[in-house]
Amino acid sequence: GAVVSQHPSWVICKSGTSVKIECRSLDFQATTMFWYRQFPKQSLMLMATSNEGSKATYEQGVEKDKFLINHASLTLSTLTVTSAHPEDSSFYICSARDRTGPDTQYFGPGTRLTVL
Amino acid sequence: AQSVTQPDIHITVSEGASLELRCNYSYGATPYLFWYVQSPGQGLQLLLKYFSGDTLVQGIKGFEAEFKRSQSSFNLRKPSVHWSDAAEYFCAVGAREYGNKLVFGAGTILRVKS
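Above: the input entities. Below: the structure tokens describing the complete assembly.
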């Protein structure tokens, strides 16, 4: 149980284009999902908290117009990197919070974004 | 401010030897504590968690961790390491008072030598 998927697992795009990453909780409902960014050889940095049916909450320094988050259902959150640039290249990981038991975040497998 | 410290960036142990990965935290609330493992290019897998109760918690893959409130520590242990345990390990802390957001340590890379 508690499986989270991400799609795509990797994506290469041209500078200036937009990329959408999906995060799904497969066997539980997640009213809250989190989006993280991980640079090579570094830890995870929280970008934003995604709440079903409401606006996302962004961490300080994260551009909300750059990283659009939509959490339209209890099992799906999407992160759209708009007008991507090479500095947006990174590993993006989502997590979903399972509220059926003690609050625990379960992580997706990550999405490797490379912007050329 | 909340912070998590994993003092060891790299650790190398021989296969079959015991392992202890250190984690210290500074938190202004009653913490929830987690250990996750990440293989290269992969997401994070939950090894174990502590919310309350018995301070020694058992996890998957033979791992355990002990919460010591007096030392603000949550060290991860395994009595006998296997080559497949080579990965990066992250300690994380959260609290309901902070919206259950997780603060991660910098990670410890475990290398296992045969």
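Note for the figure: Residues 9 and 87 of chain A are 19 Å apart (CA to CA).
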